[in-house]
Amino acid sequence: MTKYSFILLSGEKEGFLEQLQELGVVDISRSVKPIDSDSSVMFHKAERARKTLEYLEGIDYSNDADAEAIAKATVNIDGDPVDFIEECRARLTELHASLSYAEKQEKARLPWGEYDKKAIDGLSDLGYSVHYYCVDAKRFDESWGGIYPLQVVSEDGKKVWFVTVAPKGEAYSFPVQETAAPEGTAAEAAAEIADIRTGIIECKAGLLNAKDYIPALKEACNRNLVELDRYLAHEAGKGAAEDHITVFTGFAPSENDQELTEAFDKMGVIYLQEEAVQEDNPPIKLKNNWFTRQFEVFTEMYGMPVYTEFDPTPIVAPFYLLFFAMCMGDAGYGIVLLLLGLMLNKGWLKIGMFKGLGSIISLLGAGTIVVGTVLGTFFGVSLYDAAWVPEWLKNCMIVGEITIPGIGTLNIQMILAMGIGIFHICLAMTVKALCYTKRFGIKENIATWGWLLLIVGGVVLALLGIGKVLTPEAMKWAVIAVGGISALAIYIFNTPGRNPLINIGAGLWDTYNMATGILGDVLSYLRLFALGLAGGMLGQAFNNLAGSVRGDSDSLILWIPFVAILIVGHVMNLLLSGLGAFVHPMRLTFMEYFKNAGYEGKGSAYNPLTTNKEQ
């Protein structure tokens, strides 16, 4: 990054920032939230337009029961389209609530049939009151007609609706509980429903017509964001010389130096140009290839590297892919994820929460296919035991158990998970030693190199010993050399120039922390084996359940629950496995790898002023 300091009169700020936006590559220090009432208004205006856009883009009435009527209806949109859309949405919510109530009323009024409400009210004028009842048909007793004049209105075999007439003012008693009088006739409720449906159609037609405003709303949303961006950058200017001049500090990628200096010279602005250093805390712009770029989201989630720190994404990418695939552990689920990612990329499937993630889902699916095949599982079926799988493919699978002298028989996939964990941690410690040496110098990192030699050297010697590459005598001297050099670096020379006794005490404390931490970190990688095993066993359980339902019968009726159990079971297992496969590899990356690699992640992302803010 190159640092630029701009000095200009306060009255020139607005025009200067507009020109910076046109260049689109200079990051000016700014507040990341609205800083006063003006910027708050700008922010909410942009947010309102963005939410309206999201709602409009999701509207699709092609499968609506009134789709034809909605398409034919014409609604004029007057004034601000955002106001119109918000009003339509609010009215549509009210109309749906009214429709639900009216439909309940119609259902309740139907048994009472059509009647003359004026005639019934006339009975009240004559001194009589009408009482309404609804009872089970089994409870209805025709002798009740001897108590008061009684008229059955309707019956459906289960219930009986009837009324009685009694003089007003006299004591009234009847064997069953009275029900509420209908508020109107069923025909009146049906007419109200028809009016509400017409209003719903008009609202939906208006929203459908409003989709024509999507391009204009996108432009307005972008314009609001650009204005807000410039305003926040404007407020970041530091007044100097009694507010007669303003000083801005900005950063831009060094490859744009020539282009920017020519542009600034044409502007006639006074500026200083120098290489950015760590103390400036410049913003970070990651540079990765297509594959690695898909995993930048995890680096950004944890935190961007500081200026002199390494970008962990090239290492995060392949290991996250491997961890995810091992946690899923099923080649069949990998095919589903691959197809899902391809459909998201092609636009054949639109799911808001997966927007822009089609490529990484496809990559994770492809990795799961490969790893799931190697682990020998396909939709809960053991590929290693399947007769239709060719022998050459079975020879590539890592399945079964292995016997280790002095330890016992262990699952080979569990050993694989532990081995990957040891390698991952050793790699992290190597990265830490190299990067810390580059950032702080070898003198400050003697202990770091000592621990690296002890752990990585110990792992290498253990492998050489298991493979019987070295003779016992050579192994003894190699262990003495590695242990001795490591001990000197950890306990004696960990901080050159300090009291040796303090160095020894600090080394002992580091030994305690390292011994407890490394062991826990390595064991944490067992989750790769456990999650894959759990998903495979659950998938197998659903297969067995479906098979037991169908049995040996070829009946078509039994195939229906068989297929239903398989689909529902594997969808549930896929969702559960997918959640675990997303979270746990991220945990291994953030907790185990980043901790042992010494990654801080306290940098800020590169965010230049531009005239084209992405939605």
In short:
With 615 residues, the chain is α+β, with helices and mostly antiparallel strands.
User: What count of helical segments does DSSP give?
Assistant: 20
The Cα radius of gyration reads 37 Å
Intertermini distance: 26 Å
Beta-strand percentage range: 5-15%
* Overall 3D form: extended
Q: Percent helix among the residues? A: 55-70%
Poorly predicted ranges? none
What is the β-strand count?
12
How would you sum up the major sheet? 5 strands, antiparallel
User: Which structural class should the secondary elements be placed in?
Assistant: alpha+beta
**What do the pLDDT scores average to?**
84
Structure, described:
With 615 residues, this protein is an alpha+beta fold. It has 20 helices and twelve strands. Among the domains are: 31-106 and 188-233, no CATH class; 115-184, no CATH class. The strands form four sheets. Strands 1, 2, 6, 7 and 8 form a five-stranded antiparallel sheet that branches. Strands 3-5-4 form a three-stranded antiparallel sheet, covered by helices on one side. The chain has helices spanning 13-23, 37-57, 67-72, 81-109, 117-125, 186-210, 214-235, 257-267, 290-293, 296-302, 313-328, 331-346, 358-375, 391-394, 412-440, 446-466, 472-492, 500-524, 526-550, 556-597; strands at residues 2-9, 27-28, 128-136, 150-155, 159-167, 238-240, 245-252, 270-275, 377-378, 381-382, 401-404, 408-411. Helix 1 packs across helix 7 (214-235), helix 11 (313-328) crosses helix 13 (358-375) and helix 15 runs antiparallel to helix 19. It starts with a strand and ends in an 18-residue tail after the last helix.
